[in-house]
Amino acid sequence: YEVRSVNVTFLVSSATVGDFLVYTAQVTPLSADATPIDNNIGFAHSVTSTILNKSSNSSSGTNINDVIVLEGNEIEIDEVDEYLHYIIRFQNMGTTTASNLIITSELSDKLDWSTIKLDKQSHNGDVFILNGNQMSINFNNINLPDSTSDVIGSIGHFAYKIKPKSTIAVGDIITNEAKFYFDSEPVINTNAVATQITADSAGINDTNILIDVSVYPNPVNDKLQIKSDDHNIVSIEIYDVLGKVVLQKNNISGIHELNVSHLNNTVFFLKLIDKNGNFKTEKIIKK
Question: What is the reported pTM?
Fold first, then answer.
């Protein structure tokens, strides 16, 4: 097969944190294309604030050490036999050239690691899958310039695609994140991305998703408050970034408060389910 890439630079005239920048791309290959289903793709990129690499003293440039899932935060159940496309982006925000870089990522237990395929990487590196779900990308002698001396040269990426397991169900959440090790610098944790499996939109109406439930405070120290005017929340599940349930509570009389004081200080995903099976998912930060 053949792989080509086209680099496109956009100038964003105005945007605020929380906005979404929506991109679409389409290719028109030969009529004998074996897999025409992947000729179109759309992606919505959330605008976030600039956060500098915690191991860096540099104040120039924007840190893009992150993980992106091109399919976004939802896919329908009839799409689970298709690939999820992940891009891990990295940038040396330090003050000197990075000789080596190791990226690690623990694949969600809802992903079928045997289906993983590498798409593209900006630099030569070795990829290892250990214990079925531990992925490591080793860039030895990458010699990545720092962003102060070479902004463009300080950036790289690693892209791959992988399918969900055939046993996945509506309401399941697939999460992903990565860790970066630049030489002997402290580890850098990326953002956590989550993709939830939803019912086929052709067979349901909008009432299957809860829209009038609020969860606060967020970030939270100890107790989460759940406010719902029209829905009786009878079940709550909290997932970690690997998609594993770390806390579950059920009460047919309704749940209005949840103690999370024992959880680690990190990002979690909260799933609320009402008595009719409708649900809503929220990202929460435990501090």
Answer: 0.61
